[in-house]
Design goal:
Elements (H helix, E strand, L loop, with lengths): L5 E11 L8 E17 L4 E7 L13 H9 L8 E7 L10 H16 L6 H16 L7 H6 L2 E3 L7 E3 L6 E7 L5 H6 L7 H20 L2 H7 L6 H4 L6 H10 L4 E4 L6 E5 L2 H17 L4 E7 L6 E3 L1
Parallel strand pairs: 3-4
Antiparallel strand pairs: 1-2, 1-11, 2-4, 2-5, 5-6, 7-9, 7-10, 8-9
Length: 310
């Protein structure tokens, strides 16, 4: 059988941090994602030939494009003289806190991997996609890349393969995205400055409780840990109405609620899909009171993984 000339990769939306795991914990979301179609070229280089689905223009230069930089990282694995052409179709809003840059990078590496004579291992694909993430955010962090690649809740280390964390089927996310963009570079800049050692202790305790709760399927343990004492206080002022939106989630049964990734989306984890849906309606009303239209997403925390599509 001859090798394919093109492949189409899909990667889901995701949230990073999950309140307790800054840059190391994230999970995928059902219902939204990016698609990247990759073809061979005989130029020995990477070209982004089009980016579709957005009203604004994204860079086409491979080094400055998330999908392009991820493909550059895989270029040494291509046959001599071969390169990649890619078309990016965006299904995730920019600056939404839903992992759009990571999804483009992951979709690209999944598609390219389907073309290579010898498929690459997970750690290599993950590292390449993190290089793509760095093109957009300025940092090669994996808390969106890992879950977009593997699906579900994922521990995303700086080196080596990501690790999927088992979660109970009943655990759902309710997420509300206000209709304005908050660039990841801006939200990361808000984190500059000193932190107290006691804050790191509290955050580590929360992460440990959440992970233990996920492994044991224990909602009470998850609820005891799901809070952010490090990042949320510094980013919350960037999101109009945040405190009221968070309160709406907690008042409607959230185990915990915080900022999705770099924001401005706000999420809660819930004991059921129905509870998540009811809460997101209240969260949207809170954003409306702050003068912001919004969109809602509900999904299992154990969300989908990237895949090659026909």
């Amino acid at each position: 059988m001859s090798a394919p000339a093109a492949a189409r990769g899909f990667a889901p939306a995701s949230i990073g941090n999950c309140a307790v795991g800054f840059d190391v914990l994230g999970h995928s979301l059902a219902g939204h994602g990016d698609t990247v179609t990759v073809r061979w070229n005989d130029l020995g280089r990477v070209r982004i030939t089009a980016v579709r689905g957005l009203e604004i223009e994204l860079p086409l230069a491979a080094e400055r494009n998330t999908a392009g930089r991820a493909l550059l990282a895989l270029l040494p694995h291509a046959p001599p003289g071969r390169g990649f052409d890619a078309v990016v179709e965006k299904g995730i809003a920019l600056g939404s806190g839903m992992g759009g840059s990571a999804a483009s990078a992951v979709a690209a590496v999944v598609a390219a991997n389907a073309l290579l004579p010898a498929p690459l291992d997970l750690a290599t694909l993950y590292a390449a996609a993190m290089q793509g993430e760095a093109a957009a955010t300025g940092a090669a962090h994996g808390d969106n890349v890992g879950p977009a690649l593997l699906g579900g809740l994922v521990i995303a280390p700086a080196q080596g393969a990501p690790v999927r964390v088992p979660v109970p089927a009943w655990l759902h996310i309710g997420l509300v995205r206000p209709h304005f963009a908050l660039e990841t570079r801006t939200s990361r800049a808000a984190l500059a400055g000193a932190y107290e050692l006691a804050q790191f202790v509290q955050q580590s305790e929360g992460l440990a409780l959440v992970l233990a709760g996920c492994f044991r399927g224990d909602a009470d343990l998850i609820g005891r840990g799901l809070r952010d004492v490090l990042v949320e206080p510094r980013r919350a002022p960037l999101i109009p109405g945040f405190a009221a939106v968070q309160r709406a989630a907690l008042d409607h049964g959230a185990l915990g609620a915080s900022i999705a990734g770099g924001g401005p989306s706000v999420f809660g984890w819930f004991r059921s899909a129905a509870a998540a849906a009811q809460a997101t309606a209240a969260m949207q009303r809170a954003f409306a009171a702050a003068g912001l239209a919004s969109s809602a997403v509900t999904s299992p925390v154990d969300g989908p993984a990237a895949e090659v599509r026909p």
